[in-house]
Amino acid sequence: MTITNNGLGTDGKAVVVDLNEGRYEGEQFARAASETAQKYVLPGRVEEAVAYDAVILAGFGGPEGQDDVIPFLRNVTRGRGIPDERLEEVAHHYRHFGGVSPINQQNRELQAALQAEADRRGLGIPIYWGNRNWDPYLPEALQKAYDDGHRTILGLATSAYSSFSSCRQYREDFAKALDETGLWGEVRIDKIAQFFDAPGFVQPFVAGVVDALRTLIAEGADLTTTRVLFATHSIPTSDAERSGPRDVDWGDGGAYAAQHLAVSEVIMQKALAELRAEDGHANLPDVEWQLVYQSRSGPPSQPWLEPDINDAIAEHAAAGATAIVMVPVGFVSDHMEVMWDLDTEAMETCEEHNLRALRVPTPGVDPVYVSGLIDLIEERLNGTPTSERVRETTLGPWYDVCRPGCCENVRAGFKPAISGLQP
Length: 423
Hints:
By secondary structure, the protein is an alpha/beta fold.
């Protein structure tokens, strides 16, 4: 049967693809495909119930003391040959906070909250936690799950968007964990799709924007000179262009930018609609918003997504803005990039320009967010049809099984990765 662009055969029927029947060469790629990816119906949503018996929460990791900072940064930059002297130049972010990143404690709290909600629903599924760059590492989490008797595992990454570092690298991390534990063929790992527009992720940001605008209204601020800046981590433009399925023209910034723009627009619309429904706010004016970027770390010669939030703040101030609302839409918790780049640097930029500034909380362990993540787990447990999966933008629901070539790492190429079509 011939495959057409819409995932249907020439006879109009859905195509089932077996990745181990010569579609791509290379033994590693063949064994890196999860069972779901080996045989599934295009276009990439799994609509069959799967009896997952464990979940692994996959995090980035962070240092938990001054002595951890450089070893942690070595892990983050492994393979790039960056000397410790240069790592120390960026270590001051962590040193400023006693060498402790809040991300590990936040993930402990998230793990506990997810477990409590899963137990409340009677799912009978344990939640494990492992990191990419610091203890507890993913291979340790996988080994513990295996030792506890679990064989069919669902991965949940603490990142909501499509890019190499926020999706494919986690898929590679799971494949690497299978290698390091020797559990290929013993354990199946699939991954929850990007959840940037899932209601449980979106609603906490809506509530935060509403609260921030209410505060400004109470202070007598002029909303026509208020700017809402939706902030996310900048990435190299070459990575951004390769984010998401390669057979779709996502425009500048690839699927990464498209997803952020789509969900930011929804959050803004919902927040204004909620405020206008309140007494006395029916004629509330529109509030200008913009997607901005932060935390770039590459050399000046390498193009990264722009504008930088600090440049945007300065430009808005020069154009007559009086207040800034920062929405960390690219982040699931208040970790180092939020605490330093927004709460420290961006706030200082606002002060320099005499701007009133407010920062919206990240989802963290908001009950709505936690419940929403368990909803995503239940979708995969139950094989919920795509038509019944509620999402807040027209881009979703995203793919349960990543498309060929999705989120390529320009510098390192394709490595074995689970839960996706090769390469």
